[in-house]
Design brief:
The chain has 164 residues and is an alpha+beta fold. It is built from 3 helices and 5 strands, in the order βααββββα.
Length: 164
């Protein structure tokens, strides 16, 4: 359909917010059609849209009802997914599913708690290892200085002995 635009393209082309377009569609102030689950607007500026000129191209489907009416069948459409309504009692399947869900939640919380404890232990161990590294580096530095001073004094002793 050449002269029909989806809301996002119309919004970009004519610099009108999508929420404004939706309000105008809801109040029938624009020429639109509803096809394959999408609203399409006639490719003309909003000024040229007339309240009484609402038209739908041949073969298009009317938009879904806006009101809250009770459904005659046992299906509900939520977020594009059709699923069977489950009665409040739910039966054995619902209770089994809820029981399994609660068991999964308990197991997950136990595992999460164990992991948190492991993290705390590992943090303590890392702190201990950092302290050990610092102590060993200081000891290594002290030994290097001691070795240098001993070799320096040995060189001095040898040099003094050679002078005699």
């Amino acid at each position: 359909m050449k002269n029909w635009l989806p809301l996002s393209e119309y919004s970009t082309k004519y610099k009108v917010s999508i929420s404004t377009l939706r309000r105008r569609i809801k109040s029938d102030e624009v020429i639109y059609c509803f096809e394959e689950g999408k609203y399409l607007l006639k490719d003309t500026p909003l000024d040229e849209h007339s309240k009484k000129m609402v038209s739908r191209p041949q073969g298009s489907v009317a938009p879904p009802p806006q009101g809250k009416e009770p459904r005659s069948n046992n299906l509900s459409e939520e977020s594009g997914v059709i699923k069977e309504n489950i009665p409040p009692s739910g039966g054995p399947f619902l209770s089994a599913a809820q029981e399994m869900l609660s068991e999964l939640k308990k197991a997950y919380s136990i595992i999460l708690q164990e992991k948190e404890e492991q993290v705390l232990l590992l943090r303590d161990e890392v702190a201990d290892l950092r302290t050990l590294v610092r102590v060993l580096e200081e000891e290594n530095l002290r030994l290097k200085k001691q070795q240098e001073s001993e070799s320096f004094s040995l060189d001095n002793w040898l040099a003094a002995d050679a002078d005699l």
